[in-house]
Amino acid sequence: MSKNKFYISTSIAYVNAGPHVGYAMEILQADALARYNRLEGKDVFYMTGTDEHGLKIAQVAEERGVWPQELANENSALFRDLAEKMGASNDYFVRTTEDKHVEFAKQMWQKLVDAGDIYKSHYEGLYCIGCERYYLEKELVDGNCPIHKKPVVKVKEENYFFRLSKYAEEIKAKIKSGELRVIPESRKNEILNLIEEGVNDVSFSRPRESVKWGIEVPGDDSQLMYVWCDALTNYISVIDREKFWPADIHLIGKDIVRFHAVYWIGMLMSAGFELPKTIMVHGFITSEGEKMSKSLGNVKDPFEYLGKYGRDALRYFLLREIPTLGDGDFSAERFDIIYNEELANTFGNLVSRVVAMNKKYFGGAVPARGADDGFEIKVAETWVAVEKHFADLDLKKAAEEVLALGYAANKYVEDSKPWALAKENPERLAEVIYNLLEMIRQLGLMLLPIIPDTAEKVLKIYQPDFSVNGFEWKGQRDFGLLKEGTLLGESGILFPKLEQPK
Ligand SMILES: [Zn+2]
Fold first, then answer.
1. Residue 425 is part of a domain; what is its CATH number?
2. Which residue of 161, 207, 214, 233 shows the fewest CB atoms closer than 10 Å?
3. Tens-digit pLDDT profile for residues 312-349
4. Domain housing 73
5. Distance between CA 37 and CA 241 in Å, rounded?
6. Distance from Cα 361 to the centre of ligand 1, integer Å
């Protein structure tokens, strides 16, 4: 295992339906972290993908009169398309129906068997097909699944069980000590409480005739693996384990913490693998202050926003507006305000204005450097803050820090009035324009993990052949590296202002 590696995974999306904006945000948060770590010079592996087995998929496929694999192919392609359109830099897109995964899931099962942690037992319980999990009577609300508000199914079967209870204390100790980091703190406490209440063994397989669609249990073709046992294994099944395991971050939604922080950790302990370092939990997105639901007709379609505003606008909005580790709201009005005020004005207009002034006053060549007016320190401080927020996995704060530097640059234009200096004080004008050009370059660097296309456009002004591939921040972040006389390129319009709020 290389010390300088960084492996981040998203949860894998369940293909019973197409992608929604919550998955878009998860892909994006992981992408920003992957890009950040690449810029830091790490060997990064970023993986996302789709979860394609289970009864729910078999049922939806049956309703539509297609084979489960056809449904999986169709919906998996939509998720892959979304990842591409969002500019996700994932190194692999895993599918739980691919051979490599299926093979390893069986090996993993065998490891659990070898550890003495799989046994056969009768099971009677209540199962929600929507959740693909069992519930206890006391967890139900009016006899219904608390999430789906629909009746659960009574299941009475002979299944294989995983001896999860055996690992409960050890899991608790690892989470408590922070050796396995679960963030935010509220999720850590929630999961510790859950373990405190008692961890039971888990039914880890189901009869083929009742699940229909899944990976066969090695040595017993009458049974298929429980979909979570199969799905969780994706994090380790297809990667270069020597190089990248253990994962640095599993990024997941708050509804599946128990599967990752308890089941998955127990499986890894049983199979003798190292544990992931961090389980990072994001919240849910509401739409205009309400829970997103098809029946309310308020579902935000990421494809619609990508088409209408472009990928960087959606990336910026989701990272900057939604608290990284909490719940947030997607408001169309806020989207337009943030687009116009922050992207079009604070960043876009600043860049085109300064580049135009430099062209007008200095023929497009970098003027001589003079007094830095305190910006050298300000930029260095911003870098420290951005790094801290990335280390804390708070992407919203990192974006806000960059925005604050953008505000400072705009205020500097207003306060120093280059158009007046052009008539009165050419030496001071050179100083001011130099500082602005350098700040814009720094903004371009800082925006690379957040809005990479825009950042690349900005950095191309300074270096026409700039490409983010293989680029590292090192040695680029000092203020004052711009050389006098360097001829700069055009900026173009980064974010066309919205004519009227849509
Ligand atoms: Zn449910």
1. 1.10.730.10
2. 207
3. 999 999 999 999 999 999 999 999 999 999 999 999 99
4. 5-283
5. 19
6. 65
